[in-house]
Amino acid sequence: MSMWTYLVRFILRNRLGILIAIILVTAFMAYKASKVEMSYKFAQMLPKSDSTFIKYDKFIETFGQDGSVLFVGIKDKNIFKLDAFNDWYDLTYKIKEVEGVQESMSIAKMYQLVKNDSLKKFDFKLVIDKKPETQEELDSLLKIAFSLPFYDGIIFNKESGSTILGITLSKSAVNKKGRNELILQLESLVNEFGSKHNIEVHYSGMPYIRSMTSMKIQKELLFFVFLSLLIASIALLIFFRSFKAVIFPLIIVIISVIWLLGIMVLLNYEITILTGILPPLIIIIGVENCIFLLNKYHQEFKFHGNKIKALSRVVQRVGNATFLTNLTTATGFAAFIVTGNRVLVEFGLIASINIMIVFVLSIFLIPIFYSYIKPPKPRHLKHLENKFTVNILAKIVFLVLNRRTAIYIVSIAFTLIGIYGITKLKTSGRVVDDMPQKEKMYQDLLYFEKELKGILPFEISIDTKKKKGVMSLATIKRINRLQDTLATYPEFSKPISIAEVVKFSKQAFYNGKEEYYSLPNSREKAFILSYIPKFKSDKKTILNSFVDTNLQVTRISVHMANLNTNDIQRIKDDIRPKIDSIFNPEKYDVELTGTSVVFLKGSDYIVGSLLTSLIIAICAITLLMALLFTSFKMVGISLIPNILPQIMTAALMGFFAISIKPSTILIFSVALGISVDNAIHFLSRYRMQLKLSDWNIKESVIEALKETGYSMIYSSIVLFFGFAIFTQSTFGGTEAMGYLISFTLLVAVLSNLLLLPSLLLTLDKRITTKRFKEPMFEIFDEEEDIELDDLEID
Predict the structure, then answer these.
(1) What is the pLDDT of residue 590?
(2) Are residues 200 and 254 part of one domain?
(3) Same domain, 328 and 457
(4) Is the distance from CB of 787 to CB of 9 less than 8 angstroms?
(5) Residue 710: which CATH number?
(6) Per the domain annotation, does 21 fall within a domain?
(7) Which of 109, 422, 680, 715 could cysteine-pair with 288, CB 3.0–4.6 Å?
(8) Which residues, 6 or more positions from 131, have their beta carbon under 8 angstroms from its beta carbon?
(9) Where a domain ends, among 550, 572, 593?
(10) Region of poorest pLDDT, from 567-581, 595-609, 724-738
(11) pLDDT interval class at 784 (50, 70, 90)
(12) Is 32 helix (H, G, I), strand (E, B) or coil?
């Protein structure tokens, strides 16, 4: 007696106990699911052992978190009128008092160095220490502010007239749950100012972009769950013409989603841009399971009219194929675990676990639910004779029997076109990626790229290898030379470094005269640097942000535009020899780091890892299919119609200039795991038909095609529209996934309905050997039928 026979007896004999157990577990999971949270941390793309990550981590430890500034930009002359300016002044200080804000700085709150001759030091004083009372007073103060080149390109753009409010968030605020509320609170305060004075306000910065992104993920999660349930309901109602065939599968997928969210909490995972697509994905995969099971139930009941026998055969005869289809789909997702990327590992683990859970729930609950209700009526079985589907299958059978040469020619032609399209594929990604160009957030990003040259951190760390080496005039001059080099790159903003601080100090030494904003000569150096406040780690000084406690390591900070990885790599490769020509590598350790550089390395790492995971997925799926079909020739043939859709999808990306990047390359493993389902169902039925037809290959192919064709077409329609909903996403990667996987599945169903049967008939007994007829394990025996006399239902 096979495992599936034992299983169906267990399910039907213990149906009430199983239902109660599932209800209790679901209640527990619902409680846990209520505690699920959004992710507020920047995705760790590199493993902690990676050298780039180690250098970045060391930089953060020395100088603090980069990418923690929220930028508010205004380009309106009215800001410099007394009433508006005084409100801007109040807003700057009000924001500083908001919990979670570490510092706020604007033209209303700028510091200058003032020479104190009596103490022979610089005092750190505000340019505007109180609200001006007249326009003349304000104009006078603004003249002083604009005479400080240190802030040009940081707080204001003297050339364009724009001004910036920089809000630095504390590290705890950047990464904690309340960050979205903090961002919305700050946005509300600024918008109130903008509305009052009819001034357009622009927002950007990594904290802002990440918060807006997480809130969009949350909205899209609910939207896609609702949309996937709606599509599943409509499809099930059209296919089966029964509300019961809608209600029961929906109950199963809703339970599955609750379990998914509960398991995420149990594993201490949060919702990311990837795990956020899993609930609707699980709904679609769960409905696909139910379609195969319900179709088999209706086919069996129509054949012999015995409800219990039909339910038992659902488990016995479709159980193994459904198990393997879910296992191959889960394997496609599980392949992401090898990437080492935290977000992808969590995505792969949660997806693979819950795909198998939805299989278990489907195989248990479909027989249980239908054992309690009345048998299907004749009108519920009419879908098995649906003229549209019957005509499609008849046309497919005709083509397979009479037009195989044409099928091969078309398949080869598409393969050649696909290979050509693949040659056009490019690898590229951006730090701020997948943002729709019509969104205000994207338009604001362009605003800051124009006014500040960008907002993405690019850092250069310089280790002088000796204490107080940073304060050497020779080192400062080298830093200034490097800054001059950076200024030749239009992608970079104005650099900020200890060299700019020294220039600022010289200007202050000469009583704030703008023409003295330059490096001191060797004679001036001793006087001027002696005025700079000594570094104190526990007290704010002008040096804290630029040097370490030993004055050995310093930084040059620039911001850059939202470049793609190819441009970032180009700049890195171009600038490295220039750095080495300025800083002798034997005397200085100069490292390029920051969010942009880490993203570049992380993107390359993930793309490489995902290619590896795709190969692993193909190998693993091949081995799993070999367990069912035992003949590697048959497995090889079954993969051909499922590799073709992958080639066509890659070609589509090449022709439409959709780059290979982390958000698009994962499509291939997911699509392969799902598209191979049809081949498994078809070949499972084909093998059974071989036994029933006494090894008549042609008859077996046609009968298998007719029987599984309904489910293949129905499930593919659900999968197609199920993934198509993601085309409505505001995230480019998710949107591309919707288009590409839908396209892949469409090609896959056509390929499995036409090419696979054609190959079986053409190659005939050369691949359909005795080895294929016999399963590797008795666990997959599909012939055995349960004795109804032995089955008692409570």
Answers:
(1) 92
(2) no
(3) no
(4) no
(5) 1.20.1640.10
(6) yes
(7) 715
(8) 86, 89, 90
(9) 593
(10) 595-609
(11) very low
(12) helix
Contacts of 107 (CB under 8 A, 6+ apart): 88, 142, 145, 151, 155, 156, 163
pLDDT at 732 (0 to 100): 76
Q: Do 642 and 661 fall within a single domain?
A: yes
Candidates 219, 213, 656; CA nearest to 442 is: 213
Indicate the range of 41-50, 130-139, 449-458, 650-659 predicted with least confidence. Answer: 41-50
DSSP code for 374: P
Copy the structure tokens of residue 677: 């389902």
- Residue 164 structure tokens: 């910036």
Integer CA distances (angstroms), 240 to 25, 295, 341, 373, 682, in order: 30, 9, 42, 16, 21
**Cβ contacts of 581 within 8 Å, gap of 6 or more:** none
Reported as a pLDDT band with limits 50, 70 and 90, residue 781 is very low
| Per-residue model confidence as pLDDT tens digits over 542-554 | 566 788 888 899 9
Average pLDDT over residues 171-179: 68
The DSSP annotation for 215-253 comes to HHHHHHHHHHHHHHHHHHHHHHHHHH--SHHHHHHHHHH
User: Residue 177's CB: how many other CB atoms inside 10 A?
Assistant: 10
Which amino acid belongs to residue 673?
G
CB 347 within 8 A of CB 278: yes
Give the mean pLDDT of 476-499.
91
Q: Are 466 and 552 in contact (CB under 8 A)?
A: yes
What are the tens digits of pLDDT across the range 201-260? 999 988 888 888 778 888 888 899 999 999 989 988 888 888 888 999 999 999 999 999
Same structural domain, 363 and 409: yes
- Reference 320, options 778, 631, 704, 709; nearest CA is 778
Angle between helices 307-334 and 3-13 (to 10 degrees): 120
Cα 14 versus chain centre, distance? 42
Higher pLDDT, 536 or 691: 691
Per-residue pLDDT, averaged over 771-779, amounts to: 47
What tens digit of pLDDT does each residue of 288-334 get? 889 888 888 888 888 888 888 888 888 887 787 788 888 888 888 88
Q: 40: pLDDT confidence band, cut at 50, 70 and 90?
A: low
Whole-number mean pLDDT of the chain? 84
Q: Would you give the distance in Å from CA 490 to the centre of its chain?
A: 30
Query: Distance (Å, rounded) from C-alpha 538 to C-alpha 527?
Result: 26
Give the residue among 300, 81, 41 at the shortest CA–CA distance from 173.
41
Both 624 and 585 in one domain: the answer is no
**Total domains, the chain:** 3
pLDDT over 50 at 782, yes or no: no
* Cα gap 543→536, rounded to integer Å: 9
In a shared domain, residues 197 and 218: no
Distance from C-alpha of 274 to C-alpha of 344, rounded to nearest angstrom: 8
Residue 200 CB contacts under 8 Å (≥ 6 apart), including other chains: 74, 75, 76, 194
Query: Do 633 and 559 fall within a single domain?
Result: no
Cβ proximity of 673 and 654 under 8 Å: no
569 — pLDDT class (breaks 50, 70, 90): confident
Q: Which of 476, 484, 478, 475 is nearest to 504 (CA)?
A: 476
> Looking at the domain assignment, is residue 48 inside a domain?
no
Asked whether residue 563 is domain-assigned, the answer is yes
- Among 546, 569, 593, the domain boundary falls at 593
Tokens 């699980």 belong to 282
Give the distance from CA 467 to its chain's centroid: 43
Whether residues 613 and 542 share a domain: the answer is: no
Domain that holds residue 91: 68-204
For 383, the token pair is 């879908």
CB 648 within 8 A of CB 418: yes
Q: Residue 753: which residues within 8 A CB-CB, separation 6 or more?
A: 396, 678, 705, 709, 712, 713
Nearest C-alpha neighbor of 271 from the set 78, 558, 38, 61 = 38
